[in-house]
């Protein structure tokens, strides 16, 4: 049977759909041989690769409060972001401890971006997984960039929403990409300073992701339907989970076919 890899995409709170997807995979006896994640996909992917089950992650996600991960920066200009990200790192440590990539039960990688060079950085060895996942999920301007490996690092979704080639590099022969953001939707609500900035990022991301999908072509692209749920708010998490679970159940047979073909 072919080796299966999951490419779990970025998507903020919409990334809870990854947990529902993994729950559906467990119920259908489908286990990935490797996982790569970007931003929230890195958080979910790392936890799963460490041995957490989908049900455990669901309970953790539903119990999460904004104050569990948000610690206001006293000087946003000096600290380069609204939040310091110490709480986020501590929360990741609760689930991942100080495990290195070699300690994980499933081969895993995550992507980040070097703010100095603009290059994608792929982590799959050496460092504490929690540090790398923190870097992968540090949204510019929201969370302070992470200094690691002599680099200044920010959210992997800046360049790589779906780490398709990255999971192939881990040995995947069949790649299932789970895109929780999907195609760019029309914005209906009034704009303010922050929503304009986020909208700019979304527009750029949609364009570069469409180009990469044409080049990299996963064997199966899954886009859970969450309507207009915002990725920037920690609410409606059950909506995200249910959408991921439904998408996983819908495509389970197709994944099995790909593995046997």
Could you explain how this protein is built, in words?
- With 261 residues, this protein is an alpha/beta fold.
- The chain is 41% helix and 16% strand.
- The protein has helices spanning 17-27, 40-50, 54-63, 76-79, 86-96, 129-136, 164-168, 193-216, 237-260, and strands at 4-8, 34-38, 81-83, 108-114, 120-123, 141-143, 146-148, 151-155, 174-178, 220-222.
- The strands form 2 sheets. Strands 1, 2, 4, 5, 7, 8, 9 and 10 form an 8-stranded mixed beta sheet that branches.
- Helix 1 (17-27) packs across helix 9 and helix 5 (86-96) packs across helix 6.
Uncertain spans? none
Structural class by SSE content = alpha/beta
Strands, count: 10
- Mean of residue pLDDT? 91
Shape descriptor: globular
Largest sheet: 8 strands, mixed
Distance between the termini: 8 Å
Oligomer classification: single chain
Task: Set out the fold topology.
Elements: E1 4-8, H1 17-27, E2 34-38, H2 40-50, H3 54-63, H4 76-79, E3 81-83, H5 86-96, E4 108-114, E5 120-123, H6 129-136, E6 141-143, E7 146-148, E8 151-155, H7 164-168, E9 174-178, H8 193-216, E10 220-222, H9 237-260
Parallel strand pairs: 1-2, 1-9, 2-4, 3-6, 9-10
Antiparallel strand pairs: 4-5, 4-8, 7-8
Helix pairs in contact: 1-3, 1-9, 2-6, 5-6
Throw out a few tags for this protein.
8-stranded mixed beta sheet; two-stranded parallel ribbon; 9 helices; 41% helix; 16% strand; globular
Summarize the structure.
This protein has helices spanning 17-27, 40-50, 54-63, 76-79, 86-96, 129-136, 164-168, 193-216, 237-260; strands at 4-8, 34-38, 81-83, 108-114, 120-123, 141-143, 146-148, 151-155, 174-178, 220-222. It is of the alpha/beta class and 261 residues long.
